[in-house]
Amino acid sequence: MDFFVKISFFIQMLTPLNHTISQKVAEIFDLYTALHGTRVSLFGSDKRLLYPDDSGRSNCAYCRMLREELGLDAKCRALDQAMMAAALQKKEMISYTCHGGMREAVAPLFSEGQLAGFVMIGQFRSSEAPVQSPYAVRWEKEKGSAALQAAFSRSTVLPEDKIEILLAMFSQLLDLIIRGKLIHHKDYDLIAPVKEQIRLHPAEALNLNDAARMSGRSPSTVTRLFKKITGTGFKQYQLTCRLQLAAEQLKVVPNRPVAEIAAEAGFDDPFYFSRVFHKHMGCSPSDYRVADEGDRR
């Protein structure tokens, strides 16, 4: 399938979701699949398969034979659903061997504390597992050939220690995807310009009405979204960014007067800055600077 057609399909499938998922996620999953010979699938929070579709990257030959020619598609789907439910209950990745003898793992994806979907990796075998397909005898009786066993034998085989590493790497990759906001709630997009403005220019005055105009929402909606997405209020988010800038400057420019750093961070009154800094950082600006210098020695 053409790359741009594939990506368009991916985006179209995600349109009705409450979360926005970057096309980069599809690219990452495809690269991971190509590197390890596994299949990575993305499901929505309703456990509906979103990516890939069969025209983009189908199941392995062995799994297709089980699903399509032995009529086991419903059994495979039921197992997928059950394992997603189990992973959601544990809120972590779980690994298991499916009824066809293939290793699988599934992990729930959470964004801003809300379930965004599930990711499943699988269609490979452990080198410690039986070398015969659980359905080889049935296939030979019904089809009169050893084609299923041949497809099973051709599937990707990994040592158990490599499987542990592969799944650990994949878990870390999912964490980076979430942290990088490649998967995030759609509400995040509404306040993203406001957050960016505050992050890049923390000292500049930006009131709630300004933020409302930037996001195209009412002040009350902006307040609600900031609390929902960042876990803190609009004013507190501004204050945190200003204090982070001041703390960084105290470390980077040790000889610069505290009053100048306070002004650059948007605090007109250096005494007020010192009180606020102490309240949130647990020490005065001067003590913070001294402690950092001591850590570097």
Task: Describe this structure as you would to a colleague.
Strand 4 and strand 5 form a beta hairpin. The termini are far apart. The strands form 2 sheets. Strands 2, 3, 4, 5, 6 and 7 form a 6-stranded mixed β-sheet that branches. Mean pLDDT is 84; it is low at 1-16. The chain contains 14 helices and 8 strands. Helices cover 59% and strands 14% of the residues. Helix 3 packs antiparallel against helix 6 and helix 9 crosses helix 10 (219-230). The protein folds into 2 domains: 3-181, no CATH class; 186-296, Homeodomain-like (Arc Repressor Mutant, subunit A), CATH 1.10.10. By secondary structure, it is an alpha+beta fold. It is elongated. It has helices at 3-14, 23-36, 61-69, 73-90, 136-143, 147-154, 160-179, 186-200, 208-215, 219-230, 234-252, 258-264, 270-281, 285-296; strands at residues 19-21, 39-44, 49-51, 94-97, 103-111, 114-126, 157-158, 183-185.
Secondary structure layout:
Blueprint: H1 3-14, E1 19-21, H2 23-36, E2 39-44, E3 49-51, H3 61-69, H4 73-90, E4 94-97, E5 103-111, E6 114-126, H5 136-143, H6 147-154, E7 157-158, H7 160-179, E8 183-185, H8 186-200, H9 208-215, H10 219-230, H11 234-252, H12 258-264, H13 270-281, H14 285-296
Parallel strand pairs: 6-7
Antiparallel strand pairs: 1-8, 2-3, 2-6, 4-5, 5-6
